[in-house]
Amino acid sequence: AETTANRNLDVEEMRQQKQLLIRGSEITTLSTKWQMS
Questions:
Q1: What pLDDT band is residue 36 in, cutting at 50, 70 and 90?
Q2: Looking at the record's lineage, which domain of life comes first (predicted)?
């Protein structure tokens, strides 16, 4: 049970990390477009 809980935590952490990366790249793209215009 303990290993399963840890695995679920890892999956949740990875999901949050991926969302942060996606959001970060979106912000970078937006700021780059804003600087170019």
A1: confident
A2: Eukaryota
- H helix intervals, 1-37: 2-36
Amino acid in the structure at residue 36: M
Structure token pair of residue 25: 């790249």
In the prediction, which pLDDT does 6 show? 87
Distance CA 9, CA 18 (A): 14
Boundaries of domain holding 19: 1-37
Place of tokens 């991926």: 18
Supply 2's token pair: 């303990």
Domain total for the chain?
1
